[in-house]
Amino acid sequence: METKQPTGAWRTGLIAALLAACAAGPRGATAMDVVWGGAVHEESNVKFGVLAGAAFHFKGMVEETERKFYTMEGDPISSQGQETYSQDDFETDDLFGLAGLTFSAAGSWVRFRLDSVFMNPSLEATARRNYYLTLHDSISYRGRDYDHFMIPEGERFDAEFTGNMTEMALMLAPLSLSDEAFEITPLLELGVLLLGGRYEIDAGESRGLTTYQYPPEQFVVGGSVKDWAGIGVPQWGGGVQVRLGRTDGVHLDLQAHYLFCLYNGSTSLFTTAKHRKKDLDLDHRNLQLRAALEIPTEARTWTVGIQAQFIETDGTLESSETDPRKIAAAPERFDKVFAFELSTVLATVGFAF
Q: What is the pTM of this model?
């Protein structure tokens, strides 16, 4: 398995965020206390809140590239029929609403954070060409179930996704540097990003079958599809937390978290479908910035703030089979290049105890 380094743009962005946080510290400070295991504030070490906001940038693309069945040596069929799908095909808007919950807990040495947001984007569009989609075995036509679906050019269709994105991270806090009104804590982080839900595509009534590709496969023309889909990506990286203000008064909590996943190997690590084992080259990056005011009262400490998140994931998925006899006996579909981008901004309101 190969490893790669984070891209320069993301690394520069993270360094800029950390320098900006550190620059907010007190001028002229001559000495700071070292708290091993990270500073813990008993009045606000557990935080709970609600999230509300929107995704203001969304981009998705899947491009089919090569099919080994077509291109293996001696095969007379030339490569043809590749498709590329992106958000441009579906007349979608970048903006859609998000709502959810946030939770965090801090102890000596170890901390935890969780964000979970729900979404329900939908669209209405006209097929710009014949769309040939391979989905799960859930497309019914005349008493049989198929996993291939075709939306004819010019056909109106609706699509809806009801889902959830959850991010969890376990954080190691080796130390904090602090004085009366300033505190900074570096973090090492390990976590996971989960995205999943139920999708529905409605292209009217099913009205026949058509064949596509070689060897020929049957596609249902029109119809509706409902199914579940999900993905999980492990993440690791680092972050920093900065607190400004005295503990017994209103103070500002600033955080930056940069997590990534760089992987080059077999999909057997992620799936049990051995007959469709692929080679995966994945580059995933996730930057989250947070700012919150913590306002102590007699009853509890209230929090109000904002957070922004920038996720970029891209990679390639290629057939790992090299034996021409096996390729001919069980042809894999096209290799693929994919890219996904999501940027969100969320307001937070909650309390700490």
A: 0.85
